[in-house]
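Worked example 2:
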Amino acid sequence: MRIFEIVVVLMTCFIWCVALVPRFRSRDVYIALGAGLAAYGIGHLWFEGWRWQMVPLYGLAAAGILFLLGDLTLNRTPVTWRRLVGGAIVLLLIGVALLLPIVFPVPRLLAATGSHHVGVDVEHWIDDSRTEIYGADDSAPREIMVQILYPAQRRGSARLNYLNPPDVVAEALGSSLGLPAFAFSHLNLVKQDVWLDAELNERDGPYPVLFFSHGWTGTRNQNMFQLTELASHGYIVVSVDHTYGAVVTPFPDGRAVAYNPDALPGLEDFDDEDEYVETLNLLVSQWSDDFSFILDELETRYSADVIDLENVGILGHSTGAGAAVQHCNTEVRCKVGLAMDPFLNPVANDIIDGNVEKPFFYMHSEAWMRPFNKARYERLVDSTTGDFYELYMDGTKHLNWSDFSLMSPFGSQLGLDIGTIDAHRSMEIINAYSVDFFDFYLKGESSELLTNNTPYAEVTYRTDNLR
């Protein structure tokens, strides 16, 4: 819980204690408590913002004030045993009401450890050379929302919203999981150290470029813990809402394009495995082409003093990790890739069984891959002739490779795809390896972390560095 929220709980308990214990009966005390709670509540809403998980506690606080006002206006005579019973009930209700904000907190992202502030541009780009294959109009051009994190000289005018626009994305996330529209509205309150209108730090350029590809029904912001860390260490980090694959893609003109469930059918829908792979490959090829298009655009929009297009890498999660494998093995300008819990079913067979020469790092949760995906991963590893890195992390599940691991500290008990490892601990490990890996290949820096030894007890790690 946040600081103001904790004080709201304490004040609510105190005001009910005063209301239910006859010896505290005093007009001045009642007025002071009511006014103090009301003033503090306004401050809490102003500085921290309200969230639905706190509504029961807000209601109990308001009920306490009304109870006090009733004592004052009706001049009620205290009945001790009734008030003791009432006090026990109220304390029980406060305890129950506390569960919601504790079980579903406002996520707290890790602070970036790099030397740079992080600025952001969010833009709507249209690729007229491609038509949209998953929309209703197959003659419409491909449209994407592009988010660019960059090293900045100082903080900008305002923080980037974690969900943008907040209401549209929160409603889409809730709907995708069969939850009420307000279920994720509290994510609007996430504070991240990413700034709009921040001046690009051109002095320390040129910066290598990294692309991030989200998972199926994910968002461009789903890995902000990792993307912000990389940008703070001197990278231009570009993430995309892959239209019709992201949970929703909101455009500046007010359109909100939901994902197309037909774009990622299941293996059970096909009699022939090769036909299944070819169908799914349309999706990751489209996502891969999104990044090739962005590379072309970056070249025209930024000077060589700012952006280093000779050193380009990609990272992704789940289906986005499959897109990373697809992209880096078809785009000559991509030098290196990182895949977290990769979904490799959509990756082309000639890549799975080809000569994978580019360095790749595969990060895995304890047990996510299903048989078909696992078999393809093993074939991919066997065909790799370039530098190879592999990591398994104890206590992790599929969502531990994204910000969604912060949704609840009791995620595993609630049946969410979140492991038992502390979310911030897993993020620290992911960030450490991510920064070292890209620094080694895109900046030419040395790394002790990428050796065969690992300082993390939770990690099983191996490398086959064949350079």
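The chain has two domains: 3-103, 117-464. Residues 117-464 form a domain with the Rossmann fold fold (CATH 3.40.50.1820).
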